[in-house]
Write a structure and sequence with these properties.
The strands form four sheets. The protein has a four-stranded antiparallel β-sheet, with no helix packed on it. Strands 7-6-11-12 form a four-stranded antiparallel β-sheet, with no helix packed on it. The radius of gyration is 15 Å and the shape is elongated. The N and C termini lie far apart (47 Å). It has strands spanning 3-4, 7-8, 15-20, 25-27, 31-39, 44-49, 52-53, 55-57, 60-67, 71-75, 77-81, 86-88, 97-101. The chain is mostly beta strands.
Length: 107
């Protein structure tokens, strides 16, 4: 495509799908594994879970042993493509996932 500066014209945002664990999940452990699918026509620069970099391997990302606090945990997953376009939790509106750590061993 056309080039603007050093980046090709990029009108597409990255996509984040199949994010696990699901929204509003109750867990009983102090750490969880977070994973999902990430894609972009021009390539993915990075995926972050809150402020921690996730591992990107092809079309999947993962953040293993992600620490949780007791109570509500706001989880923001942000993908950035090579043209610096960002998407958060699969939505331009960036609704965070809520993971609830409780003391009852739910999970």
């Amino acid at each position: 495509g056309e080039k603007i500066g050093s980046y090709p014209t990029d009108l597409q945002y990255p996509t984040l799908t199949n994010i696990l664990p699901l929204e509003n999940k109750f867990v009983g452990q102090s750490e969880i594994n977070i994973s999902g699918t990430v894609s972009d026509d021009n390539g993915i620069l990075s995926v972050y879970v809150n402020s921690e970099p996730a591992i990107v391997n092809g079309a999947t990302f993962s953040a293993d042993n992600f620490p949780l606090n007791y109570g509500l945990n706001d989880i923001a997953i942000t993908a950035k493509d090579l043209a610096q376009k960002k998407i958060k939790n699969g939505s331009l509106f960036g609704y965070n996932k809520i993971i609830v750590k409780d003391g009852f061993g739910n999970g």
